[in-house]
Inverse folding.
């Protein structure tokens, strides 16, 4: 396992949002957390990127305990999150946003240029918009920018929080294709999604979250076939 | 509203065409341009002797070079420092006068009240102490955001002033007098009557600060500040140690504020707590916001305007603060980003310009 989360508890004040969940992300795999609003998906994601503190439990990345590590140090280890919604820098151009992805790596402009070319290959739309301000992009383009920016950090584990949120159906299919492609290049992915069908189709492994608990887990394929999961999350 | 907002379009176009012309210049022409501007600034005390222009710029009731030093230089220095905190890192600081006071008081203590150091030696010490105060204020409070930070900094400014007012060691409300003057150099005598040497010194300090801040703004530190201003969470997720860089913004801002205080103390020779009221913090902030928060040259312009315009309007003494207030309100309604807005992607601007040029060509 590249990432191992054990018995995780997270509190918002006195309210326990995550009530002891355990899961893992295998090296080179796509793992998905699915569940309804308020199930604790985003909170779990934020504890892995480090912006939320853990009350109890442990997060192990590549054999190293990172439970109490600061977020910026986790980025250096290769954990990078594309935040939910519009977590881009609105007043920076597309180019400047992508440059921020290389912040922890610094140096080597040849490598940066190669990474930039790779991101533009995945998202040709971003190249067309290179000098436009992030805040003026459409929702789908902002999502692409957030993913592209995370890729610029050369992550080992890419955290994607609701990448399909608010997108047109055609764009959703496209985003999931790109996630598969990113994964095929050897980057492990943890995907948090409400769009369970699409997520389970691309995922090697899936966990179903309900009000702070993991209620079911299995391979993406098995969960897709599971009658209970179908009834609750996949519309029958 | 936008039609009135467009009243600024000629101003913006004028600045843009100056910018374009500047970009077309070669290295040698650029340096000559800088040199001419700098020489013109050093000659500013003599602008009043120029026919036609002289009477327009001259300030009634106060010697022009006194306004230049005591008002303009101080406000420009402070606006430069505050712009780092508010404009670049996006941290609302309502107690910036505190750092200005710390700088002035350290110089006063070291050169008069409790020491006999020369002014020049007190300068680096005062700057370092101001930075320490930046850390003292920042370390516990920079975990707060937005409104909460503003309230705490507001309190800081008042704490500094009230401490000075109530501590005998700091001269209490009598203040501290006989603060040493800067040393005479190049035949310039820092006396009581002629303000010009102070202006030359102050302008030199401004140029040094501009140079240093320009270097920082375009470094990794500057990029981190802008990322924090744009979206603090996203900056953290991109690996920016946000707390560390916010603290640096506070510390560097404090250093420049303290430097302004040192210059002020050296000129006036006497300070007391009433020189550092809350109102001054508000005016400092007004300078940054009016000129263009996040753009160093905007902050300088704002500092010049906030310092100079009230002096120029002194003939309307009773109404000038009112007029000034109205101008500020109108500015915020019609051009909230300030006169010279912050740089938004040079590349973006260039492309916009070139596409406009293409349209014109067709």
């Amino acid at each position: 396992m590249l990432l191992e989360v054990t018995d995780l508890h997270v509190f918002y004040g006195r309210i326990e949002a995550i009530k002891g969940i355990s899961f893992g992300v295998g090296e080179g795999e796509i793992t998905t957390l699915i569940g309804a609003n308020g199930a604790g998906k985003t909170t779990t994601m934020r504890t892995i990127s480090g912006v939320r503190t853990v009350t109890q439990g442990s997060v192990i990345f590549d054999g190293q305990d990172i439970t109490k590590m600061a977020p910026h140090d986790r980025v250096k280890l290769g954990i990078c999150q594309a935040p939910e919604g519009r977590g881009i820098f609105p007043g920076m151009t597309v180019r400047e946003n992508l440059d921020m992805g290389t912040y922890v790596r610094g140096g080597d402009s040849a490598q940066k240029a190669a990474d930039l070319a790779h991101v533009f290959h995945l998202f040709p739309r971003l190249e067309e918009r290179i000098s436009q301000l992030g805040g003026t992009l459409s929702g789908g383009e902002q999502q692409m920018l957030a993913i592209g920016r995370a890729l610029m950090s050369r992550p080992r584990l890419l955290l994607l929080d609701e990448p399909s949120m608010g997108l047109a159906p055609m764009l959703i299919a496209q985003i999931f294709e790109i996630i598969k492609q990113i994964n095929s290049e050897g980057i492990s992915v943890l995907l948090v999604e409400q769009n369970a069908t699409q997520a389970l189709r691309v995922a090697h492994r899936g966990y179903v979250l309900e009000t702070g608990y993991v209620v079911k887990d299995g391979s993406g394929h098995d969960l897709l076939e599971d009658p209970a999961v179908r009834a609750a999350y996949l519309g029958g | 509203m936008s039609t009135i907002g467009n009243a600024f379009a000629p101003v913006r176009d004028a600045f843009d065409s100056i910018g374009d012309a500047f970009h077309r210049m070669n290295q040698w022409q650029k340096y000559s341009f800088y040199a001419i501007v700098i020489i013109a600034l050093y000659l500013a005390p003599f602008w009043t002797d120029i026919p036609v222009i002289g009477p327009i710029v001259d300030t009634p009731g106060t010697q022009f070079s006194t306004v230049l030093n005591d008002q303009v230089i101080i406000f420009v220095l402070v606006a430069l420092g505050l712009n780092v905190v508010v404009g670049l890192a996006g941290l609302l600081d309502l107690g910036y006068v505190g750092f200005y006071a710390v700088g002035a008081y350290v110089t006063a203590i070291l050169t008069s009240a409790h020491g006999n150091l020369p002014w020049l030696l007190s300068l680096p010490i005062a700057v370092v102490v101001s930075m320490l105060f930046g850390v003292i204020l920042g370390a516990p409070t920079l975990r707060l955001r937005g409104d909460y930070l503003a309230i705490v900094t507001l309190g800081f400014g008042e704490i500094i002033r009230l401490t000075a007012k109530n501590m005998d060691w700091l001269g209490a409300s009598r203040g501290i007098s006989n603060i040493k003057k800067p040393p005479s150099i190049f035949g310039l005598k820092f006396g009581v009557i002629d303000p010009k040497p102070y202006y030359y010194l102050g302008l030199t300090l401004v140029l040094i600060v501009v140079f240093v801040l320009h270097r920082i703004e375009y470094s990794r530190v500057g990029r981190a500040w802008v990322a924090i201003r744009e979206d603090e969470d996203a900056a953290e997720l991109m690996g920016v140690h946000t707390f560390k860089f916010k603290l640096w913004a506070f510390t560097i801002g404090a250093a420049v504020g303290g430097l302004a205080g040192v210059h002020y103390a050296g000129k006036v020779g006497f300070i007391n707590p009433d020189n550092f009221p809350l109102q001054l913090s508000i005016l400092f902030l007004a300078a940054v916001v009016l000129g263009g928060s996040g753009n160093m040259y905007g902050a300088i312009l704002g500092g010049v305007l906030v310092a100079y315009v009230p002096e120029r309007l002194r003939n309307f003494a009773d109404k000038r603060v009112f007029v000034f207030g109205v101008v500020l309100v109108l500015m915020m309604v019609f051009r909230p980003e300030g006169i010279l807005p912050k740089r938004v992607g040079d590349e973006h601007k260039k492309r916009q310009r070139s596409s406009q040029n293409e349209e014109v060509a067709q």
User: Anything to note?
Assistant: The longest helix of chain B spans residues 242-268.
